[in-house]
């Protein structure tokens, strides 16, 4: 008790000091108060464990690090209520849980169980508070990467020369944007000799989202003192119109302020890159008939500094009552200096029938290197890696919509897409070896595809009505093709999706177990094991059995019966069991468990009370099992339903001649 009180006092002191620093302006509030309706909906979803609503609100841009009127953040609510998958989703999306902050310590302190607490501890500072770090790290690495060569301009200050990228300079510096717009083909740039080399290097590193310098002393023989270097940073920041440079250097000495400044600057840089990307890359895409795609010619010295064209094809159906217009460069915000071949003048597609169309995106190899597929391609001796007068066209096997999502992720780290294209994004990310985008697609599928209700509520889902064929309709509607999902998980080797699919099937097993598609899926799972012996396990079946046990065990755990029963109550339970025997006189009783048994899934303990002559109950609804029999209560129904589903799985294995 003393330790708990001491810990509480420490948290209160931490909160007081934090609020004081925020009030003084020394710190920014990481957890601002949010009373908006979308944030309230996110908090409610975190309390209930509703993955689908959580993902939807995160995609809408709701601040997941805000707090409600009770000072609870979504992460604290999900941790407190024991929703592991929601906690994982929030952390993957950038939720804060830093140990030396009030809210971070509070989140750890209030975690419902060790599993969630250990998950919170696994997320260190860089992973939990800076989700843009992979993007920043890649852009910074371009300053030192010499193979494959991607720079297209050399900027010099004094004796210091750096090989840079025009599109990054144009996106990040208003000064360079104006200069490059006036002379897009320029390949060298010289800054005044009065700028100290270290100040110039600090400015370029800032533009490339690098860490601010900790030391300002210039190297020997340069002739610049520390104060002169500092003055040079101020001068070059004004010259290049990058005002945040000086502040980032000033804040580098304080860890907390440096972290907040770093996070803000990287987010600002990402927003600038995104704005430039949408205006110049997406805004200059060209849509042509596939037969004419190879006729598109882009000069290497173009106004958007692209050095490759990515192509994606799709089949469209042209409306009968109107022409399908191909957007011209001017309509898409393109610069007039971009040379395009005869495709741009082809104004119309045939009015009838289906047409194969291609969309070409101007892109930059420096950003495509984030994909291992493109990195290997551009480092090879193949044609795509060689320089040419016109840009190479690289075909990517996906739809234009999916390719746009892939490019958006590579340029901005953003990946906002719906369930309708999530599987296609998964396959494209697998093809291009973009592991983080694969994970994002798996998160979208497993959260938005989890149904209209949370996992805890799914455990309580009961058949809504019976049909003439004896099958029951489940209360939660099918929103995804789970068979397509699990096959996609197998093909792309995404363990998270395999687990999701097994859980999904287990929580809705009564709707799938009698279908031919389910039987074929079990057969495929067995065939995936090379040189499978007759008694080898079937991975999918093992997972379904595990989550099926979890589903029914959750019902018992939620009731908290075991915790509520002390030794005296256990003694009283003997009398209750005797009373059950008297009540069930005249009934056929099969495997009645003793009251208080926690193993509701064991076959011998399945609570089945089947009336030989059913009598209508005077009070309450009649509870029936999956085979239509009357059960004494919901716990008895769950026990026999669990056994019924296990028996059906065993019979399915016999039918398929499989032993597992």
Q: What layout of secondary structure does this protein have?
A:
Blueprint: H1 2-24, H2 37-48, H3 51-59, H4 74-80, H5 84-92, H6 102-110, H7 114-122, H8 125-129, H9 133-141, E1 153-157, E2 160-164, H10 166-172, H11 174-182, E3 188-191, H12 197-207, H13 226-239, H14 244-250, H15 255-280, E4 286-289, E5 308-317, E6 324-325, E7 348-349, E8 354-363, H16 365-368, H17 372-378, E9 393-395, H18 400-412, H19 419-431, H20 435-448, H21 455-459, E10 463-466, E11 472-474, H22 482-492, H23 495-507, H24 509-512, H25 516-527, H26 539-559, H27 561-564, H28 567-583, E12 588-590, E13 608-610, E14 623-624, E15 630-631, H29 634-655
Parallel strand pairs: 1-3, 5-9
Antiparallel strand pairs: 1-2, 4-8, 5-8, 6-7, 10-11, 12-13, 14-15
Helix pairs in contact: 1-6, 2-3, 2-4, 3-20, 4-5, 4-6, 5-7, 10-11, 10-15, 12-13, 18-19, 19-20, 20-23, 22-23, 23-26, 26-29
List keywords for this structure.
660 residues, alpha+beta, Serine Threonine Protein Phosphatase 5, Tetratricopeptide repeat, Potassium Channel Kv1.1, Chain A, 5 domains, four-stranded mixed sheet, three-stranded mixed sheet, 49% helix
CATH C-level category of the largest domain: Alpha Beta
Amino-to-carboxy terminus distance: 50 Å
**Arithmetic mean pLDDT:** 75
DSSP E strands, number:
15
Strand content: 5-15%
Q: Within the CATH hierarchy, at the fold level, what is the topology of the largest domain?
A: Potassium Channel Kv1.1, Chain A
Structural class: alpha+beta
Helix proportion range: 40-55%
Shape: globular
Strand arrangement, major sheet: 4-8-5-9
Largest sheet composition? 4 strands, mixed
Number of domains: 5
């Amino acid at each position: 008790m003393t330790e708990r009180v001491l810990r509480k006092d420490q948290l209160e002191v931490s909160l007081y000091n934090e609020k004081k620093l925020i009030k003084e302006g020394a710190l920014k509030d990481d957890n601002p108060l949010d009373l908006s309706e979308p944030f309230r909906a996110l908090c409610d979803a975190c309390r209930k464990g509703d993955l689908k609503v959580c993902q939807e609100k995160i995609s809408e841009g709701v601040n997941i690090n805000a707090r409600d009127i009770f000072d609870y953040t979504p992460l604290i609510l999900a941790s407190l209520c024991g929703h592991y998958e929601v906690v994982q989703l929030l952390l993957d999306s950038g939720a804060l849980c830093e140990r030396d902050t009030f809210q971070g310590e509070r989140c750890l302190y209030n975690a419902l169980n060790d599993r969630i607490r250990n998950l919170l501890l696994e997320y260190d500072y860089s992973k939990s508070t800076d989700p843009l770090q992979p993007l920043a790290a890649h852009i910074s690495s371009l300053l030192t990467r010499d193979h494959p060569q991607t720079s297209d301009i050399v900027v010099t200050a004094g004796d210091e020369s750096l090989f840079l990228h025009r599109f990054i300079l144009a996106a990040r510096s208003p000064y360079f944007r104006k200069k490059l717009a006036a002379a897009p083909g320029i390949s060298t740039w010289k800054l005044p000799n009065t700028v100290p080399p270290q100040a110039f290097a600090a400015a370029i590193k800032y533009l490339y989202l690098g860490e601010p310098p900790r030391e300002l002393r210039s190297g020997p023989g340069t002739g610049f003192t520390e104060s002169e270097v500092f003055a040079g940073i101020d001068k070059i920041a004004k010259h290049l119109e990058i005002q945040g440079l000086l502040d980032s250097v000033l804040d580098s000495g304080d860890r907390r302020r440096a972290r907040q400044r770093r996070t803000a600057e990287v987010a600002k840089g990402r927003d600038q890159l995104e704005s430039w990307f949408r205006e110049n890359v997406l805004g200059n895409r060209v849509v042509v008939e596939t037969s004419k795609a190879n006729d598109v010619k882009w000069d290497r010295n173009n106004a958007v500094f692209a050095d490759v064209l990515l192509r994606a094809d799709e089949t469209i159906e042209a409306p009968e009552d109107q022409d399908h217009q191909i957007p011209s460069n001017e309509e898409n915000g393109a610069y007039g200096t971009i040379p395009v071949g005869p495709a741009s003048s082809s104004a119309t597609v045939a009015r009838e029938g289906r047409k194969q169309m291609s969309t070409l995106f101007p892109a930059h190899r420096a950003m495509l290197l984030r994909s291992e597929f493109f990195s290997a391609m551009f480092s090879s001796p193949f044609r795509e890696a060689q320089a040419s007068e016109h840009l190479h066209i690289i075909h990517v096997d996906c739809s234009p919509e999916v390719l746009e999502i892939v490019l958006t992720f590579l340029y901005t780290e953003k990946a906002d897409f719906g369930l309708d294209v999530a599987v296609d994004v998964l396959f494209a990310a697998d093809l291009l070896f973009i592991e983080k985008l694969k994970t994002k697609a798996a998160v979208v599928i497993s959260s938005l595809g989890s149904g209209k209700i949370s996992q805890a509520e799914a455990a309580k889902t009961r058949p809504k009505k019976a049909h003439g064929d004896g099958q029951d309709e489940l209360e939660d509607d099918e929103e995804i093709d789970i068979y397509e999902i699990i096959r996609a998980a197998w093909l792309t080797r995404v363990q998270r999706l395999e687990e999701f699919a097994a859980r999904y099937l287990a929580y809705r097993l009564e709707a799938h177990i009698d279908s031919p598609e389910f039987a074929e899926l079990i057969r495929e799972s067995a065939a995936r094991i090379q040189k499978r012996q007759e008694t080898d396990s079937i991975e999918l079946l093992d997972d379904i059995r595990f989550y099926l046990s979890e589903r029914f065990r959750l019902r018992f755990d939620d009731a908290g019966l075991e915790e509520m029963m002390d030794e005296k109550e256990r003694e009283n339970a003997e009398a209750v069991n005797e009373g059950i025997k008297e009540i069930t006189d005249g009934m056929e009783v099969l495997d009645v468990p003793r009251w208080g048994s926690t193993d509701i899934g064991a076959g011998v303990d399945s609570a089945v009370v089947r009336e030989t002559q059913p009598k209508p109950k005077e009070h309450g609804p009649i509870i029936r099992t999956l085979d239509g029999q009357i059960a004494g209560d919901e716990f008895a129904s769950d026990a026999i339903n669990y056994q019924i589903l296990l028996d059906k799985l065993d019979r399915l294995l016999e039918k398929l001649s499989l032993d597992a």
